[in-house]
């Protein structure tokens, strides 16, 4: 069984993650999310600009966050509220309070 992966953040690191996911037989990259997705060149998977809408539409098994840390808390919260595990690139946050909040949200759900 292949995990359905939603990739959030389609910049340089996100494209690296897209290759890693594509090369893993246990994972399928089902879509990507980026606020600039409509301005990016055509990719080999569907893209969306809104994370919440993509979570509802694609119903991933896991989300990979390859976004700047200032967005992580909101993104982790959106996933955690839906019971979706997250793999988050470092740094998790830019300060200890936000990092702690990210962990607390994940643990609460």
By DSSP, the count of extended strands is 5
Determine the mean pLDDT.
96
What is the string of helix and strand elements? EHEEHEHEH
| Alpha-carbon Rg, integer | 13 Å
Q: What does this molecule look like?
A:
With 109 residues, this protein is α/β, with parallel strands linked by helices. The protein has helices at residues 12-22, 51-58, 72-80, 96-108, and strands at residues 3-8, 27-33, 47-48, 62-65, 86-88.
Concise account of the structure shown:
By secondary structure, this protein is of the alpha/beta class. The chain has helices at 12-22, 51-58, 72-80, 96-108, and strands at residues 3-8, 27-33, 47-48, 62-65, 86-88.
List keywords for this structure.
109 residues; alpha/beta; 5-stranded parallel beta sheet; 38% helix; globular
Mind sketching the topology for me?
Elements: E1 3-8, H1 12-22, E2 27-33, E3 47-48, H2 51-58, E4 62-65, H3 72-80, E5 86-88, H4 96-108
Helix pairs in contact: 3-4
């Amino acid at each position: 069984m292949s995990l359905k992966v939603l990739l959030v953040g389609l910049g340089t690191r996100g494209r690296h993650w897209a290759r890693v996911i594509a090369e893993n037989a246990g994972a399928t990259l089902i879509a990507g999310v980026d606020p600039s997705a409509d301005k990016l060149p055509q990719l080999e998977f569907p893209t969306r600009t809104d994370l919440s809408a993509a979570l509802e539409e694609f119903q991933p098994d896991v989300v990979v966050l390859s976004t700047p840390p200032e967005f992580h808390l909101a993104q982790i919260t959106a996933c955690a509220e839906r019971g979706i595990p997250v793999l988050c690139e470092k740094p998790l946050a830019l300060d200890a309070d936000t990092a702690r909040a990210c962990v607390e949200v994940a643990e609460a759900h």
